[in-house]
Amino acid sequence: xxxxxxxxxxxxxxxxxxxxxxxxxxxxxxxxxxxxxxxxxxxxxxxxxxxxxxxxxxxxxxxxxxxxxxxxxxxxxxxxxxxxxxxxxxxxxxxxxxxxxxxxxxxxxxxxxxxxxxxxxxxxxxxxxxxxxxxxxxxxxxxxxxxxxxxxxxxxxxxxxxxxxxxxxxxxxxxxxxxxxxxxxxxxxxxxxxxxxxxxxxxxxxxxxxxxxxxxxxxxxxxxxxxxxxxxxxxxxxxxxxxxxxxxxxxxxxxxxxxxxxxxxxxxxxxxxxxxxxxxxxxxxxxxxxxxxxxxxxxxxxxxxxxxxxxxxxxxxxxxxxxxxxxxxxxxxxxxxxxxxxxxxxxxxxxxxxxxxxxxxxxxxxxxxxxxxxxxxxxxxxxxxx
Length: 386
Hints:
Blueprint: H1 7-22, E1 26-29, E2 37-39, H2 41-44, H3 47-65, H4 70-95, E3 104-107, H5 109-129, H6 133-153, H7 160-166, H8 169-203, H9 205-220, H10 223-240, H11 254-278, H12 282-290, H13 295-325, H14 338-347, H15 350-380
Antiparallel strand pairs: 1-2, 1-3
Helix pairs in contact: 1-3, 1-5, 4-5, 6-15, 7-15, 8-9, 8-11, 8-13, 9-11, 10-11, 11-13, 12-13, 13-15, 14-15
């Protein structure tokens, strides 16, 4: 029997081999800000577990390089990610001296490379299997449930990022709420404004070019610059408009961040509304006219339902974008996970940076998967345009 080589598998295997055998698995630091000491797998884990992990990686590399069944690759990727998640928690207990509350243990480049390699293997297997949207959402829920179980079990309590969280738990959830409100609130406002504006641009061609050009110009302004530009006008409004300050409008804080995210959100919503409505088959409109539907009935009964998957794609782009951009709002007092990112940079505490960065990435990843699934489900409904 001829052995077949998987080309992507060769790349994944190379990343995995470097991460496991050449790069450090964990970093040990005497306290939160001093430089760390890199520890390879055999030093970072108890001897039996370290050797077992290296053997597991060696077997995995062989299976990844060869054209093995796709389901086997998916199971291998998921199982390996679970193993790495458990072992990095064990490494913290192994490396930290007893009763030492100052020492810090964090994942090193080898752990991140190995995790990335197995995540890439999992993503490739899922792309080949093409599971239904609801299955992908269920898999996402299972991943988050597994992470929650590890957190609740205390398996990661020894890791430095959890120690940073332990001293900031109340603040963390407060900033998490602000981050979600900024991202979802600006999306809701942009949808309420962008949908009618997109319909207007679709119906009135003379308006379309001007509106889209203005929104394109806004997109070219760097986020931190746009935040800064909004401070002066919003500060003036807070001082001179009665009641403005009482409802939260100020030169710094959440108001300029919200307005900036709203402005950034308009282009994808408006543009996708225009594209979606333009893609409605002429036959569908002709048939609607033929049965006596008014313009309003055609818009809400035919055009918008058929354009909905394209519009939802724009909303997905906006939500993922806003989750990331909301991090920068911390620079002008807007709150969110960016508070921990910029505090960590200022204190040279990278684990504090991760406390803000990791949940931001997780939120964006989850939002993308859920809205992708929603888009596919809306496309698959009977009567949708191809």
